[in-house]
Amino acid sequence: MTTNADLLIDRKRLKSRLMLWRTLALAAVFGGAVLYSGQFNKRSAGAVGGDYIAQITIDGTLESNDERDEMLKEIADDKHARALIVRMDSPGGTAVAGEEIFLQLRKVGTKKPVVTVMRTLCASACYMGALGSDSIFAREGTLTGSIGVLLQSIEVSRLIDKLGITPITIKSGKFKDSPSFGEPLTDEQREVVQTVVTDAYNHFVRLIVERRKMNEAHVRTLADGRIYTGTQAASLKLIDGIGGNEEAIAWLVKNRKISPKLGVKEIEPDPQIRSLVEVLRQSTGIKFLENNTVGLDGLVSIWHPSLTQ
Question: Is residue 3 classed as helix, strand or coil in its secondary structure?
């Protein structure tokens, strides 16, 4: 009995020690993640010393982003940032996100020149955002354009009938749930929804007319949703030229008298909880708070190949 009691006590001690070491190890990993993320994302550009050309990257599916807003505001207010290069690589996103990026870049542009460099893809809302810059460059093989707005839904009323399901919707007005997945879209409902899409589309066209100094009728012939290569976009005056960072800097030197000796500094968002979680995920292999969903509520301005004929 004494031996068994001693073994039990020893086992409890071992478990306590193991738990302590696990806790310390997790704390060390988290602390390292904080330090790593802080160093990796640090954007105290003013602390670099002297003037410079700021550079940011906007990529992925575009949504409203407070961190991006704050970052651009700081760049606009930083007297050492003499110009801004925006590298964009996105299929687009929500119409509001494209509009917000456009407005943010225009605000920066009131204080310093802004140049956009399109990379692999900059279509739909991404192109809308790029219009906020003073000059736009792209590679010959860049895909851009896809000018337009869409609202997508599905209608599964026939499937619901086959399954014996009766959807119940209590609404304040006949258009409140239009379009609805539970009942066919009427001509009247379609017309109402179409007016919303058309209004957003007209806003997109007006931005192009204003910023690219083009005739509206001509813009509408280009803005039918098709995509263009960088070469095509340049010939159609949707962008200013073919090139990348080197050409963007040359434009700044020639047209805005920016010194060719200034260095380019990549500015990134301040560290957030999400980036810390990502660092933990990468360093430990554990899927903390995994979330692979991307929500695009509202009107969408995005390019993707259709799966239907």
Answer: helix
Give me the residue label for tokens 């851009």: 144
Per the rule left: phi > 0, alpha: psi between -120 and 50, beta: everything else, 294 is beta
Handedness of CA 268, 274, 280, 282 (dihedral sign): negative
Which residues are catalytically annotated? Answer: 124, 176
From CA 184, how far away is CA 10, in angstroms rounded?
70
Answer whether 174's CB lies under 8 Å from 192's CB.
Answer: no
Query: pLDDT 10s digit of each residue in the chain, 309 long?
Result: 455 555 555 666 666 666 666 666 666 655 555 454 444 344 444 444 699 999 999 999 999 999 999 999 999 999 999 999 999 999 999 999 999 999 999 999 999 999 999 999 999 999 999 999 999 999 999 999 999 998 888 888 888 888 888 888 888 988 888 888 778 889 998 999 999 999 999 999 999 999 999 999 999 999 999 999 999 999 999 999 999 999 999 999 999 999 999 999 999 876 554 455 555 555 554 444 444 444 555 678 777 655 444
